[in-house]
């Protein structure tokens, strides 16, 4: 299992180089540039080669797995109000695109990368359909973060929890307002998607289609991305192949 | 006809000025004492003048007022003629009017006032820039800041040197470079005037507009640099190096000056709780001081003004009252509108007035070079920029950016400030030609081109709380991912800045509790405020453009055990109270208390027309208010509408336990009211049909059932609050709260 990035824009080399970089999840980034022959060695080690737009890998990470505590101990995350949900997303089986549900106890590098692959940016060469797919994928990721019980809809309770988490660093003011805000948001979703509801009807929850509809103005495919260093993202693509 | 009278009056007043002290327009004109006053002083004591004519005393203010009035009447006139204003942008029409006025004045024989540079830079330009800076959309601006800076700095430099270099044959190098530096800057006034009307998407708008704002620093430096050296004759490497240093000083210094004044303004606004009336003045004065202070040191005044507005705004808005905010908004829009109009008119007048040195080759070459250099610059820079951008700029975008590089009055004024007279006329002529070309040709054709190329237009999005929630959510998510990877990227630093802002700056600059209010809640409050305002206005028969939606709180709340149709148990005394209120306030309609209660219903199949209208409005109000969720009121000031009307309604409508205490006028109702509320809104099957019927905009239709008493009470409460008597012809459809 290996992450390979083709880095076209590497300044001092004339031809395309393959380089690997490494990350230590617990502390900080280590960067290691490996010349091509070493990469070949890695390739021989495992059966799966995962190309991904995120290019982090650690030498011993290949062998080890990470649990929730490892992620929770990252100091920089302490200030993040939705940290639990972010960590949850890494351990969520739904984000692995293998039609499973539930959550992992530990994740390996492969799962980590799969989650990270949701944050690829589109390029000039991305076609419209690919953009659509990308957008759906990213929205699905967000949806999964909210839909904690995996029933396919975000109910009012779940949405409330989400907003509460978002405002969790804001003290008492946040908590009081969270419910009102979540209610208003839910109402908005309902009224945009199902405008004519009889008073007896009950809006079960936000389905994925409604979710897409309500957020289509945000252009998720361009917003939800991480830019890593100044690696030329045009050459990165995500896929799976065996080698 | 009145326009003509006004024109004549104006011209007469202008010609009159020749005979007396001339203070308006070209300061170089000779002045002489007016001979009129002398004549009366000799001789005998005259009779006391009952009515006399003292025009000279009020001449100056009168002239100014007449000019402004003319400008505004012109603007008004254009909008009355819709056909013209759809084809021709306003700026063209105004220049044309200026030409006319100038022509008339010249024909009469007077000397038309030119666009005095001091007037322009100190009085006409700041309002426009302040308006732009204060309302600058921060998010797209900061997201595209790199691109904007590249276009502004590198693009302008390229333009200046290209034009200057290419014209080398005509004049000596330094003069050419000077000319190049004057003509190369994209003008914010012209860009605003034209782009405002074509409504292109946010990205392009902010790119061109941001560029026009930020290139001021480059322009200032280049202009002063070459002006100095045009006299000296040579440029050494040391001078060039000093020029670069100067650029950094000018831009960063300008920004710093602006930021300082911005913080001062924000800090001052913290204490204005008791003197609300002067709050807007602080904003204006601090900003103007920022501009002037920057101009004192020849720093970039425009950047200073922008920085001041941007820094000041979030804190000031948290501190000032809603009325002050509206005042600031409208005054800024008003002033900038007047300034813009005056600038274009004066441009027209100066064209007629100013001495011209027409040189065919010079002018034609200038125009062509401007176009060519702009196109080349944009294409080249975009190629480089796209390597670093995530959202790449397509060819269409590049075309619009290139085509939107309009020149305007700043170039003219800079040319005007030159002191070398023969060059000056030559330059001025060329500048005016370029301005005319860009404003007329490019300004007029950009709209059809935008249509033709199907450039994305600005999406009309009202504030959506879902989008806001998810924008924040995304921010935190991406910051979190970056933290997990240990990558200190864009989001990480933004998050750090936000936390610093929240922890320290806000505490100093924002008064009271609002300093700790998270952004989502501020957004939500703002939306509520807007909705309250809209509701108040709609009470006075304004039309609300909203989507029809019958969704209300009951549709999304889990009713739990109350999901089935509950038997309401409204207390008799309450019902009596309601009836009393109804009787007291409804006009000339038969009282009907509709409730699906165990008590008898008084069903009356025949309705009044007024009753129907009333009911329509009631239902709309009910729907709106059922969407209306209030955050518990804090110590901040809120419009009385909110406190009195809606909170009490909200009491009834919440299905949850009212754990948050609300200081409402009514006593908080005990829990048994919840099933009441449920039942009151639970409707018989007729309700949907009623709503369906309501949706057809028609005249009164006979309805079988009236809405229940709750809505009547709502309506009453609302009408009391709005002090609006009785039913109105309110035939609009209602809308949901936020869509």
TrEMBL record, chain A:
InterPro entries xrefs: CHP3, EF-hand-dom_pair, EF_Hand_1_Ca_BS, EF_hand_dom
Q: Does the keyword Cell membrane apply?
A: yes
- Pfam families documented for this protein: EF-hand_1
**In its UniProt record, which GO terms are filed under biological process?**
cell differentiation
Report domain EF-hand positions.
Answer: 134-169
Q: Which UniProt keywords apply?
A: Calcium, Cell membrane, Cell projection, Cytoplasm, Differentiation, Lipoprotein, Membrane, Metal-binding, Myristate, Nucleus, Protein kinase inhibitor
> Would you tell me the Gene Ontology cellular component terms?
cytoplasm; lamellipodium; nucleus; ruffle membrane
Keyword Secreted, does the record have it? no
Protein family according to the UniProt entry: Belongs to the calcineurin regulatory subunit family. CHP subfamily.
UniProt name for this protein: Calcineurin B homologous protein 3
What organism is this sequence from? Answer: Lates calcarifer (Barramundi)
Gene this protein is translated from:
TESC
From TrEMBL, chain B:
Main localization is membrane
Give the encoding gene's name. SLC9A1
**What is the residue range of the signal peptide feature?**
1-17
Q: Which Gene3D superfamilies match?
A: 6.10.140.1330, 6.10.250.1040, 6.10.250.2020
Q: Where is this region: Disordered?
A: 24-43, 655-739
Annotated Gene Ontology cellular components are: basolateral plasma membrane
Molecular function per GO: potassium:proton antiporter activity; sodium:proton antiporter activity
Which InterPro entries did the record assign? Cation/H_exchanger_CPA1 (IPR018422), Cation/H_exchanger_TM (IPR006153), NaH_exchanger (IPR004709), NHE-1-like (IPR001970), NHE_CaM-bd (IPR032103)
- Domain (Sodium/hydrogen exchanger regulatory region) spans 548-634
Bias (Basic and acidic residues) occurs at 696-717
Q: Could you identify this protein by its name?
A: Sodium/hydrogen exchanger
